[in-house]
Amino acid sequence: MTEAAEHEEYDVVIAGAGVNGALIAKHLTHAGFRVLVLEAGPGSAWSLDGYSRHLDHFYAAASKGPESPWPPAVAAPQPDTADIRSGAGYFVQNGPDKYGSSYTRAQGGSTLHWLGVCLRMLPEDFELRSRFGVGHDWPLRYADLEPYYGRAEHEIGVAADVADQAHHGIEFPDGYDYPMRRIPLSFSDQVLADTIDGMRVTLEGESIALQVRSYPAGRNSVPRGAYRPVGAVDADVDRHDMITHLGERCAGNTSCTPICPIEAKYNAGKTLAQADRGKLRVLAQAVVSKVSVDPVSGMVDGIEYQRYADPASPRHTVHTARGRVYVLAAHAVENAKILLASGLGGGDSLIGKGLIDHPALYAWGLSPVPVGAYRGPLSTAGIEDLRGGAFRARHAAFRFDIGNDGWRATTGGPDSSVVDAVTNQGLYGTKLRAHLAATLPRHVRFSLAVEQLRSEANAVTIDPRHLDAMGNPRPVISYRIDDYTMGGMAAAAEAARQVFRQAGIADCTDPEAGGWFPSVRRDGEVFHYHGMGHFGGTHVMGHRAGESVVDTHQRSWEHRNLYVVGSGSFPTMGTSNPTLTMAALALRTAEHMTEALAARQPIRQGEPSGF
Amino acid sequence: MENRLDQFVRLSALLTGFAPLHLLGTGMAETYLRATDAALPDGVLDELLDAGSLPSAGSAPPTGSAVPGAPAQPGGSALAGGADPDAAAGQAIFGDAKLGPVARALILLWYRGAWTALPQEWRSAYGASPRDVDHVVSAEAYQAGLQWDAAGAHPAGARQQGYGAWASPPAALETESAPGTTGVRLPRQAGAPSVTEGARS
Q1: Is B63 a domain residue?
Q2: Which residues of B73-106 are buried (b: 16+ CB within 10 A; e: fewer)?
């Protein structure tokens, strides 16, 4: 395979074409720097034809989980939630608890299958240790990130109204609003709000009023001012120009996860398409296997990658990419894996240590009246009121996501309900149809995402006994859900029961009847949880080298021309879905890199890095 | 003489509660006929089609509407279908150890666009086809699943309802006129109590 990339000079080499890598590539190319992006997975989602094939793959898939449209290449395996029970698959689950999340190794990364929730973290989430005596403080405060949140909301294209989002001390600059108006609340949200709004629950003696609230979403709606929503993209500029307005509004496909058919939901391919293409080279099917470090200077002097032609085969050739600066933007787990495989972790190093997620509980029920389930974006509202408060000194905070997708995630509805009616209830004909018409539109689902704090015992490690088809290490995951999080689970489950009772919703939550999920036990109560895909904590940021892996610009303490970016840098995650916060951090990092690169004359390849 | 596809659609209407015109409108009838044939040992589908054409059923097309207060099925068997000719045909089919499971698989095929493998006991007794495995028939079949129509919704990822449609009340329970006439749907007035619990056996 010819490998022009190997012989070209780049200012920046980025591993990973997800949201972090794409944002940094976009901004550095526009600042005039030459950027190479290496993507481990296929690049097929970056063309409209390729994207359509992924959509067909989803339609025909027997199981329609988050991974269903995005089958991995042999060379770039990825975790699959279907493997959690058996223990097979890409992750080596070392226990004691199962890590329940997955991610996508393809150009576009996990934004290809994400839900699109773009919540800012709460100011108190950055100061957990100072305010509540638990977890860690960030080396940044909300005020430090606020301008970048605003920029990230415009990069991603977030639909929300500031009037809904100023809660828990979240502040916006005067005159600021999101680039698009909020996504309309679903009929289900409106029905539930009628009974939930104003209802109170008590946590650790603190009475908190609940409200069904629209959340900010990376989905296109009605633009404000001159903002033009970004719909479907094609890497080929000529083809892209032929896509007219596709995906410039959400059309309610009820399929944000695992694939928005019209790309009305943000994916990182949109950002990559906005880069200065003359300065950008993207190599898909290039698996970064190792970061090479000059032993004398400690600077990175190259990134080794494995290029493969056939996604069905591990056959590959090995190459090295060189630049002045290097960025690992490969995912919280993959970043740690690459650093460890390069011999850069171990000992007291925090690389890989502190893995977190939002272990989440499902609660599902049957509303007394139709709520119009199975229509609209998978969710359009949440209950945010239990994300913050004094109770956090005692147990984890949590967030309600209110589904518009019926029991799809919990039991496999509507299919499971049809099978039950036909097979177990013996219904057929008009009675079958009437039964389904009377019940399916009443399906209600909450997802209760619970905060988790970093613990160094929860870690990504590697083990030479566990390799993938390319000879690269598979992530070995050690993971335990502690009492702080289980306390939050108990409070969340109780809050959901209260909400169901008050709203007259028949509580159908029965893990035995639903899909299989891993479980943990506390004081005789069993919590069945699923991962939210919110990996974090594996290359934590901090003020000092010994206590963190990267500084506040996500720059490696040990290797000063290496940036390790993404939610792996998070000291805590609060209860926000991490994408918006990592996008804000990536923009801050890109700004820093632009200044640092501009301060030095470009250097020729082969010379010691002057960065 | 009714051809086999017509026979298949008529039986499917009886089993699913959707009018023949609706079923034909999915564009999947011929595909499902072939898929069902492929998933069954030779001759089994013809037996089912014949059972669906019992004189009592064959004398009148499926009505597409359940008679209120239809008597419970005798013998405590798990039968809860329509009444009169439909009920007679239904009884003949679902009371039969060989045809009942096949009819259920056919209902699920129409509702889900996916074939559901027959129980192992059934295959031991009546024979197994290599195509009798759980599978989505095709991308089009998934999108044509009747379950979405029954729910007043749309298949996830297809046939979307448009920006903001989710903010409106769900389409009221849609009814159909008797098959063989127009098949026109009669949406009820939004907000009116429009759904009734289906009978359970």
Answers
A1: yes
A2: beeeeebbbbbebbbbbbbbbbbeeebbbbbbbb
Q: Which of A247-256, A439-448, B189-198 is least confident?
A: B189-198
Q: Contacts of residue B108 in chain A, CB cutoff 8 Å? A: 418-419, 422
Asked if the C-beta of B82 comes within 8 angstroms of chain A's C-beta atoms, the answer is yes
B129-146 pLDDT, tens digit each: 999 999 999 999 999 999
Interface contact B154, partner A, CB < 8 A: yes
Q: Say which residues have a Cβ less than 8 Å from residue A479's Cβ, sequence separation at least 6.
A: A93, A94, A95, A96, A97, A98, A99, A355, A458
What residues of chain A lie within 8 A of the CB of B152, using their CB? 370, 372, 375, 437, 440-441
Output the average pLDDT for chain A. 95
**A16 CB-side CA count, 13 A:** 28
What is the per-residue pLDDT across A96-148, written as a single tens digit (0 to 9) for each? 999 999 999 999 999 999 999 999 999 999 999 999 999 999 999 999 999 99
Chain A: closest CA distance from residue B90 (Å): 8
Helix (H, G, I), strand (E, B) or coil at A86: coil
B 89-148 → A contacts, CB under 8 A: 90, 94, 103-104, 107-108, 111-112, 114, 116, 134-136, 138-140, 142-143, 146-148
| Closest Cβ opposite residue A55 in set B138, B157, B164 | B157
Q: Does B192 touch chain A (CB under 8 A)?
A: no
Contact state of A428 with B195 under an 8 Å Cβ cutoff: no
Q: What is the CA radius of gyration of chain B?
A: 17
Sort strands A476-479 and A286-293 into parallel, antiparallel or unpaired.
unpaired
Instruction: Report the number of distinct structural domains present in chain B.
Output: 1
Query: Min CA distance, A229 vs chain B (Å)?
Result: 14
- Taken in order B115, B116, B120, B126, the sign of the CA dihedral is negative
Q: How many CA atoms lie within 13 A of A61 on its CB side?
A: 19
What counts of helices (H) and strands (E) characterise chain A? 14, 21
Q: For residues A111, A113, A117 and A121, what is the CA-based torsion angle, rounded to 10 degrees? A: -50
Q: Which chain A positions have a beta carbon within 8 Å of B82's beta carbon?
A: 429-431
Report d(CA A346, CA A339) in Å as an integer: 10
**Within a domain: residue B174?**
no
In a domain, B200, yes or no: no
Write the CB contacts of A464 (distance below 8 Å, at least 6 apart in sequence). Answer: A473
Residue B186 inside a domain? The answer is: no
Of B15, B135, B140, the CB nearest to A429: B15
Asked if residues A76 and A267 have their Cβ atoms less than 8 Å apart, the reply is no
Distance (Å, rounded) from C-alpha A173 to C-alpha A153?
Answer: 14
Looking at beta carbons, which residues of chain A come within 8 Å of B140? 59
Identity at A610, one-letter amino acid code: G
Structure tokens at A409: 């995630």
Residue written as tokens 């990182």? A268
Residue of B63, B163, B174, B188 best to disrupt the A interface, most CBs of A under 10 A: B163
Helix (H, G, I), strand (E, B) or coil at A254: coil
Euclidean distance between CA atoms A508 and A365, whole angstroms: 5
Distance from CA of A208 to the nearest CA of B (A): 27
Task: State the residue range of the domain holding B56.
Answer: 4-167
Please name the amino acid found at residue B119.
P
**pLDDT for position A514:** 81
**What is the DSSP code string of A352-364?**
TB--B---EEEEE
Q: Is A109 helix (H, G, I), strand (E, B) or coil?
A: helix
Q: B115 with A60: CB under 8 angstroms?
A: no
For A370, name the nearest residue in chain B, comparing CA atoms only: B170
Does residue A567 contact residue A535 with C-beta atoms inside 8 Å? yes
Contact yes or no for A434 and B94 at CB 8 A: no
φ/ψ of residue B189, rounded to 5: -65, 130
